[in-house]
Each structure stands twice: as structure tokens, then as C-alpha cells.
Write a structure and sequence with these properties.
593 residues, alpha/beta, six-stranded mixed β-sheet, elongated
Length: 593
């Protein structure tokens, strides 16, 4: 057996910030070297950030990525870190000498590189390109056909990239043929509910298939509507968990592994993979086996978060990174005294700190006294910046010039509020947060250019019932040490807000139930129709009321034009309103005629 101390650098890069991301790589490599690691690995596309989307189609950006990789290799050596092998993801393209039919020269590659002693030792590229859900990588990448196997400290380490683990065949299926002692997977795998359990099971299955231990390093951070949760891990050849990093925070996961010593004669050359493709095993050596120069490092084994904590952590991280990475110092939202804006304000306070959260109370002639006092109580508990701007006079001025009635008059109030938010945003540089939830977005229960106006929607992928569940959960966390929570001294959301019957307060005695079914009935139907793509007959067969099915389908289908104009927000379900679900606005197909 041979010993290998591996460091998995779970970092938070920013798309396009090549210099800043290179700084991350150098900094974490130094920490890994100081800890005695033989090898440090970074996530997929750590140098460029992920996903780069159509930036991959710009030659200028691809060339900048290639130059940044070479500079990073030299910089590591110049700073005394050249002896530790570094594995990182970056953006490359296929050179002319490697052109293949169907894979034209110059096509972009989702690539991985080993850096050692000032040089790029070897390059490879992702073989399986995902083309589902939020991914459309066939559009911008060509696939790789190499399995690099690098001998480090007497252990042969094979390297694959993210989707190569999730699909059968390809480089993973020839890892056992390569006699690798460790399979290293670098990843940018976005979060969705319950994915941590699926991820662990997948890694265990692939380790058993490859016949060796598996190290899985994942990105952490928010990128537009995607949130990467980290959750890097290591499993043994039998699939048993050995080490695991925390979720939603940067972390350097160190582990000491006893692994099979490399064979005297390495396996090289082309091998037929299980998916019918040919994978070339490319073997290199970076150093001879040396005795351990450190005390054994106890494996980190973090207990995964429970479901509600996971979801909340994703919302906080997604909101923080969207705000900070886009250059905003603060956020602003309308605080109505209702549950949605209360949860958004709390997420923002956890993400940025109460000092950077500004709320505006905008009472109208239909606002109840309780709504105003409840909002003021939340401000007091959380220490937010607040101001009150009554809108009755503004509404009266519009109504004096326009003859509006019913829904048009109700929407006028919402649009006046949005005008105030956007005006204050322009004046002070705040990012406006919207408060719409998935139930409202699905059914069109919102005002275009009114409550849907803003730059980011923290709860747009939460059903209304989940909004309540998270509000109650957050109130139980006072005094806990979760790293993504602000230490409030008391429950941040007043109980009166949580138990209040929801209302838009745009007409006298208005309640959501006047327009929508009860949320505990509506939300399961929406999950089945939106997230599971069940049609009318399947929904009825699943036990949903026929009349309700037909009504809700019509509401959802007609609201597509509103959703297309809604700001981005963190994806936490298997299918969100965004990259996941792409339906035409102009569309005469109806499940219900």
C-alpha cells in the first residue's frame, strides 16, 4: 500500500474573473502544501468560473483562459509551490492537430489540467456533455477522449470531470483497466433538494465500478440562478464514506488515504469504453514515493444538513453571491407585513448582514394596521434600515387622471410601489429584491412591472407552503452556529406574520383564497404539473380534483409571458422557472380545451 495525503479545494470562483480565480488556486495550494498534501484538486472550470455559457464561443475568452492557465502554473513554481501537483478545471479548445470528424478544430473544451513545476503536465476534457435540465453543453463544447493517469507518491490517480461520473461508459468505465489507485472527479454540480444523498450513492457506485477509492471535489457559490453547494467527499473502493466537506461554505478537505501502490508497468493506449467510444489512457509520473512527513490527519466527516437547512443555505448563498459578484453593496425590498417579504428580508439579512438591507413600508388605503406594525416589529428584531412611504396620495393622483377599475386599479397600486423601489435603487445603488414565490409565479398571481419588478428573486423557486416552512424553521435557529445564519437575539420573523392569512391588500378585505385554492391543495398540484411534467390525465389519475386540475393548468399556461420577464432567483428544486423549463410564450397547445 502507498500513502497519499490529498487536499480537495472547495472554492467559490467568479465567472470571467481569471486573475481572481487564479489567486484562489494559489492561495489554497499554499494552504495544502503547508498541511503536507501530496496533491491538491480544484473544481471543474475553477479558473474561469462555471457555467461560462456562450463565453466559450468567444475565441478571446478561450485564449485568455489558456494564457491564465500557463501563468498560474509558472506562478505556483515562482512562489515555491511547484512541487505539489495541482489539478484544476479551465476552458480550452481542440487544437488543429487533434481534429476529428464531427469535432471541428477550435471547438471549446470543458477541460482539466495537471500543473507541476511551472508547466502544464497534461490536459484532458470532459467526455460526457450533459444536455438536460440547466445544461446544454452539446451546444458549446466537444467531448474529450482521454483518461489521464498520473503517478503521485506511488499512487496512480485517474482524472474525470463531473458528468463523466453521472453517465455510464466513457473514462470511468476504463479506470479499472488503467489500474488506478484513486479516481479523482472535479465537479461543478449545482444544488437541488436531496441531491446530496444521490451524489453520495453515485460516488459509492462509481468507486465500486472503478475498483478504487474516489475523491469528489465540488464548487461552492452562486452563479446567476445556480447554487453550488460544495459537499466534496471521498469514498473508499468499497463505497464507504471516508471524508466529507460542509455545504455552502469554502473548505479545504484534507484526507490521508492508504491506497494500492502503482503497478511497475503502467497501462497506456486506447481502450474500448462501455459506451462504445475509445478512450486513450495517458500515463505520466510526477514524483517517486516518499515517506509520510506528517502526522496522520483525521478525516473530516461533516454531518449533512437537514432538508430545510439545505434549502435555506442555498437561498442565502445564492442571494449573497448574486449581490456581491454583481457589484452591489446593499439590497432594497418592499416590506408589506406578509410572509413572503418577511422571509426575503430575513434571507437578505443572513446573506449580507442587516446593515446592508433596506426595506420600504408602502401602506395604501387597504393596508391593515397589523400589516404595518408587524413589518415594523420585524425591522426592530433584525436591525434593518427602514422608511415609510405612504402611497395613498400617489394613487389618488393617478386615479384623478385615469379612469381605472377593478383589477386595473389594483395593479396600479403595485406598479406605484415598484416605481418607488426602482427610484430608490437608482438613487442609492441598491439591488431590488422581489418577493414572489413559485406558487404565485406558476398561477400568474402577480403584477407585471409591479410586485414582479426587481433584480433578483430569492424565493422564486419556493412554493408558498415551503415559504411558511422555512420561516418557521428559521425562527427555531436562534442561537445556533450554522455559518450562513446571522446571530439574531430573538426570533427574526414575528409569529403574527407567520400565522396571518395571506393577502395582497389591494382591495377591501382581500384574501389570496378569493382567487386561488388553498395552498396546501394547490402546491402539490403545481409540483406535479411544473416539476414532474404530468399532463391532465396523469394529474387526475394521481388523485387531484378534475375541476381544479383544469383550472390550474389554464392559469399556469397563460402566465408564461409573465414568468419570462421575472428576474432570476436561486434554483433549489428539480425544475425551476428559468433555465430548467423552456416553454414558448406564443403557444396554442392546451392540456385542457
Amino acid at each position: 500500500m502507498a500513502q497519499l495525503r490529498i487536499a480537495l479545494a472547495q472554492v467559490n470562483p467568479t465567472v470571467g474573473d481569471l486573475e481572481g480565480n487564479a489567486d484562489l488556486i494559489v492561495d489554497r495550494t499554499r494552504r495544502a502544501a503547508d498541511a503536507g498534501a501530496h496533491l491538491v484538486a480544484f473544481p471543474e472550470m475553477a479558473l474561469t468560473g462555471y457555467p461560462v455559457e456562450d463565453l466559450a464561443l468567444r475565441s478571446s475568452f478561450v485564449e485568455a483562459s489558456q494564457r491564465a492557465l500557463e501563468r498560474t502554473a509558472r506562478r505556483l513554481a515562482d512562489e515555491g509551490l511547484g512541487d505539489i501537483p495541482v489539478v484544476t478545471g479551465y476552458l480550452d479548445r481542440r487544437p488543429v492537430s487533434q481534429a476529428r470528424a464531427g469535432m471541428p478544430a477550435g471547438s471549446p473544451l470543458d477541460a482539466a489540467a495537471w500543473l507541476h513545476r511551472g508547466e502544464v503536465l497534461i490536459r484532458s476534457a470532459k467526455h460526457h456533455l450533459p444536455n438536460y435540465g440547466v445544461f446544454d453543453e452539446y451546444r458549446i463544447f466537444v467531448r474529450g477522449d482521454t483518461l489521464p493517469v498520473i503517478r503521485v507518491n506511488g499512487v496512480d490517480v485517474a482524472t474525470v470531470i463531473c458528468e463523466d461520473l453521472w453517465q455510464d461508459g466513457g473514462p470511468v468505465s476504463v479506470t479499472s483497466t488503467a489500474d488506478a489507485g484513486l479516481l479523482l472527479a472535479i465537479n461543478a454540480s449545482p444544488y437541488e433538494r436531496n441531491k446530496d444523498d444521490v451524489r453520495l450513492e453515485l460516488c459509492a457506485d462509481r468507486a465500486r465500478e472503478a475498483g478504487c477509492a474516489l475523491a469528489y471535489v465540488n464548487m461552492v457559490g452562486g452563479q446567476d440562478e445556480l447554487v453550488f453547494d460544495g459537499d466534496s467527499l471521498i469514498v473508499g473502493a468499497d463505497g464507504a464514506p471516508l471524508a466529507r466537506a460542509p455545504q455552502f461554505v469554502e473548505h479545504l478537505l484534507l484526507a490521508d488515504l492508504d491506497l494500492p501502490a502503482a503497478a511497475l508497468e503502467p497501462v497506456t493506449g486506447p481502450v474500448n469504453a462501455l459506451d462504445g467510444t475509445t478512450i486513450t489512457i495517458d500515463h505520466r509520473v510526477v514524483g517517486e514515493s516518499v515517506p509520510p512527513r506528517y502526522r496522520p490527519n483525521p478525516h473530516t466527516a461533516v454531518t449533512p444538513l437537514d432538508d430545510l437547512a439545505e434549502v435555506y443555505g442555498a437561498l442565502v448563498l445564492g442571494t449573497r453571491d448574486y449581490t456581491r459578484k454583481n457589484g452591489f453593496r446593499s439590497v432594497l425590498l418592499g416590506l408589506s407585513g406578509g410572509i413572503d417579504s418577511a422571509l426575503v428580508a430575513t434571507i437578505a439579512a443572513d446573506a449580507l448582514g442587516p446593515q446592508d438591507v433596506h426595506v420600504v413600508l408602502l401602506p395604501s388605503r387597504y393596508s391593515t394596521e397589523g400589516s404595518v406594525t408587524d413589518a415594523e416589529e420585524l425591522v426592530k428584531r433584525q436591525g434593518l434600515h427602514s422608511r415609510i412611504v405612504p402611497i395613498r396620495g400617489m394613487v389618488d393622483a393617478f386615479e384623478a387622471e385615469l379612469d381605472l377599475h377593478g383589477l386595473a386599479d389594483e395593479n396600479l397600486q403595485a406598479r406605484i410601489r415598484a416605481t418607488i423601489w426602482m427610484g430608490l435603487s437608482n438613487e442609492h445603488g441598491h439591488l431590488v429584491l422581489t418577493g414572489g414565490n413559485k406558487s404565485e409565479l406558476a398561477t400568474g398571481y402577480s403584477t407585471l412591472y409591479g410586485d414582479s419588478a426587481g433584480g433578483f428573486g430569492p424565493i422564486k423557486d419556493l412554493t408558498k407552503t415551503m415559504v411558511w416552512a422555512l420561516a418557521r424553521w428559521r425562527n427555531t435557529q436562534t442561537g445556533t452556529s450554522l455559518p450562513f445564519l446571522h446571530p439574531f437575539e430573538q426570533e427574526p420573523i414575528p409569529e403574527a406574520i407567520i400565522v396571518k392569512e395571506p393577502s395582497a391588500e389591494l382591495r377591501p378585505d382581500q384574501k389570496d383564497r378569493d382567487t386561488l385554492p388553498p395552498y396546501d391543495v394547490l402546491d402539490p398540484l403545481l409540483v406535479d404539473y411544473v416539476e414532474r411534467d404530468m399532463g391532465r390525465d396523469a394529474l387526475i389519475a394521481a388523485g387531484h380534483d378534475t375541476a381544479l386540475v383544469e383550472r390550474v393548468i389554464r392559469l399556469v399556461d397563460l402566465a408564461e409571458y409573465k414568468r419570462r420577464q421575472y428576474p432570476p432567483g436561486p434554483k433549489i428544486t428539480a425544475k425551476n422557472f428559468g433555465r430548467d423549463r423552456r416553454l414558448p410564450i406564443t403557444n396554442r397547445w392546451r392540456e385542457v380545451l
